[in-house]
Amino acid sequence: MKQSGKRSRLFKQILLSHVLIFAIPFIVLSSVVYYNAVVRFKSETESSSLYKLTQVMNTFDLIARGLDNTASRISIDTRLTPFMVKSGIYKEIEAIEELGKYKANNTIVDDLALYFHGDERLYSSNGMNSLDTFTKQVYRFTDLDGARLGAQLNETRFPAIRRAQAQLSGSENAQNVLTYMFPIPRNSQSPYATVLFLIRESMLTDLVGPILGDFNGSVYVSDTEGRIIASRSREIKLTDAEAAKLSEAYVGEGVHDVSYDNERYSLMKVKSEVSGWSYVVVMPTSQFLGRVLEMRTFIVLICLAVVAFGIATAVLLSTRQYRPIRHIAEHVRPLAGRLQGSGERRGNELDLIRDTVRATKDLMEQIDEQRPIVREQFFVKLLRGALRDASEVDTFIERENLAISGKTCFVAVVSMEGNDYVSTQNREELLCLLSEVELPQAVGYGVEMIQDNAIVILVAFTGGEEATRELQEHIAREIARQFEACCGIKPAIGVGTPVSGPLEANRSYIEASAAIEHNMRAHRGDIIFFDELSQWQESNDWYSVEEQIRLVQSMKQGNKEAAGAALDSLMNDLRDKQVSLFYLRCMCFDLINTFLRTMNELQVNIQPEHRQGLTEFTTLEQLGAGMYSLIEDICNHVNANKENKNSELGDRIRSYVQANFKDYDLNLEKISDHFQMSLSYFSRFMKEQTGYTFTDYVTHLRMEEVKRLLKETDIPIKDIVASVGYADVPNFMRKFKKSEGLTPGQFRKLYS
Questions:
Q1: DSSP code for 502
Q2: Which of 207, 275, 352, 468 has the fewest CB atoms within 10 Å around its CB?
């Protein structure tokens, strides 16, 4: 529940920020919109209606022009002249077809007819009919017969429109039909015919209907004589006649406020300059107040909807923004528990993440502190020949930015044997100094080899394996100078021959170790080069002393690969010797003696089957096979002995720590000095042997002792903590709760 509360507080903060971002502009915008919608609603509605009315007028003008244009084309159509039409039945059929084409080009027209003055027949797009037939059967006019229609057609001198009621086929109710008549020829004082367009009033009222929208009122269209030719009404008391009367009372165009029969109306009027028709919209003014109130309610509802939408959006955005924070917090919470302990924390998820990042930063700093140990392990494995994967070596070199890739290398070994005491502090200072040291024309990396009781420096320089002895000697003397400046002792240094790269450093290390071990005349401050050992060889007829030394030193280090490579070189050398059989056997027995001396020095017993192979060989292949077996026995013995020594040393270290873990002053420096190791080597060795770092191991022992005393005794907690070597009681309390999930007092109550 506590975590949920923290989360909800953070979520509320994010939600509140989003709501404020939305609310402030919304309130301002809503006020402006409400003012414009309510205060100006009436005038905008009137202006809109007037605009729509003007658009309808323009549309009707276009229709009138189109019909006028059609009448003009009919008047000049040679196939529709009286002479051509009345020239026979065939010509009459052609005239009817031609009228059908004109009708098809005017979609608003229900029918199109041509009447020649004085004739009793009417030619339409549907056929030829008499006037009576046309009015009584085709359109079935209720207020227009053939005689009246004929009179109107004969008397037409100018375009005129009339409104009539007809019972159209397919319709149960009578509908208004507009008869729009044009004399032809157009603009003639004595026309000979009339073109009659029949238009359903609904075609026009469908155009004027949208003007009202959802308001109550009426829309009227009247001709030049004030007769209403089209109208559409909704919920209004005015009749067509009353509307026409109101329209005539206000000649001017625009918006007018009028009063009729104690009712207020808003009248919008426009008049066409083309047809002379008047277009009028009449709306009761009382509805505007009601609509304003309705609009206000609508606006309030819209605002509420927008507010709801805004809140929902704010919740959605807040949730989406909060969710990744929550997920990160859920991932880092277990890590935070391990890094910071399980004590009470204050704040929200952001505080948790921030604290975890800080703790992680501290952890990264600890990792950086351990990096020298990792680098030391790399150099130890490289020097011992345990790393043979070039890509793995190159990757580590690139990551650690070591200046040895692609360069010539050689190894210098500084022996630490003798009775001279070198304190842990001096060792640490020396290793820190040699961890990466700039040398003349080169760079060196030092590492402690505790089993060999030596410090080894891998030197990388630009140049080839043919580097001069002066450069190697100059570099070695600089190493000796720095050693003496740090520890006050002039060491003897063994130097191996240069190799082509870091992967071959093991060979140079073996040579440097051999140089220190085989030159018994070495004194303090001497520099012994491995290739000087070959000067013992007086004749080229004997096998290579250098390879013999490499073989012995490789076996002493337990390096099977290096020893096998040296033996291969020796056996190939023996095969190529052009000497007598007696001299060859002497060299073979000398090589056997080398193996026996080494085994005796290392206290390795020779197996009976190997002894017979060394004494009764008849070929070099048989001798080589026996020697390979000896190499495996010797290297296995050396490596097992190293493991035993490491295990024995590990037991001694554990016993020492277990006996002294309650001491306040037990620390890494003290125990490293006791076992004559550098801090970095001791830390690495402790981790390998126990699986714990030194600090964790001591803390583990102290914690177990505290738990035992809490369970078995009534000693005050403060005294228990002090008795196991802790001076800072509050700090121990935090560590205990982090480890056990309980305070020491709660632990005692639970288990006592």
A1: G
A2: 468
